[in-house]
Amino acid sequence: MNTWCAFAIALSFSFVPAPQSAALKAESAADMKELSTYLLTMETLNKVDRAMRAAAAEIKKDPKFAEAAKIETELEALKKKDDLTEAEEKRGEDLARRLEALKADDAMDVSNDQTIGQMAARIEKIAPISAGLRSAGLTAREYAKFMMAVLQAGMTAALQKSGTLKEIPAGTNPANVKFMIEHEADFQKMQAAWEALGK
């Protein structure tokens, strides 16, 4: 997986799957025009960093998160055992089902949203993220545009780097592709920090 796509996944944590389909299927002409003129900047990247850290702190206060973390710890302990008793096997199955139920919150899945407006509206409904965005001075729409632009420019940068793409596709801002390439180290650093927060 290339750095930029991995970054977007880390950016979105486990509670908001990366909006790859949204980035690729932004169907309205207005959205495509908006993305083609949107500029990625370090200022916005730093705001998103602050927002995601704040969102992670909010999520950790959620009793469902605490329960999921406890279950994951217990499941890891069971996996490390060589021989499980019948009771331990059943316990593991029960825990896995409960964990799946805790994570099955479709309201938090933005991967099927196909417009900036749809993604922004759904993000607004995810309390920890919307609170984190507000604390960093970002709107849900700005965050949605940022996510789409990172994926769009990141995929283009990765294809260019591999030599499979010679020209930047229409609708992709060349300045954003340049930004992704120039700031790869910044993205890698933040990716590592966000992956740690998402655990």
Q: Which structural class should the secondary elements be placed in?
A: mainly alpha
| Average pLDDT, all residues | 80
**Topology as a string of helices (H) and strands (E):** HHHHHHHHHHH
Proportion of strand residues:
under 5%
DSSP summary, beta strand count:
0
Q: What helical percentage do the residues reach?
A: over 70%
Largest sheet: none
Number of helices: 11
Q: What brief labels describe this structure?
A:
mainly alpha; single chain; disordered N terminus; 199 residues
Structural commentary:
There is one protein chain. By secondary structure, this protein is an all-alpha fold. The protein has one domain. The protein has eleven helices and no strands. The chain is elongated, with a radius of gyration of 19 Å.
Question: What is the topology?
Answer:
Blueprint (H helix, E strand, L loop, with lengths): L2 H9 L8 H5 L4 H9 L4 H19 L2 H18 L5 H18 L12 H9 L2 H10 L3 H23 L11 H9 L1 H15 L1
Quick structural summary:
With 199 residues, the protein is mainly alpha-helical. Helices cover 72% and strands 0% of the residues.
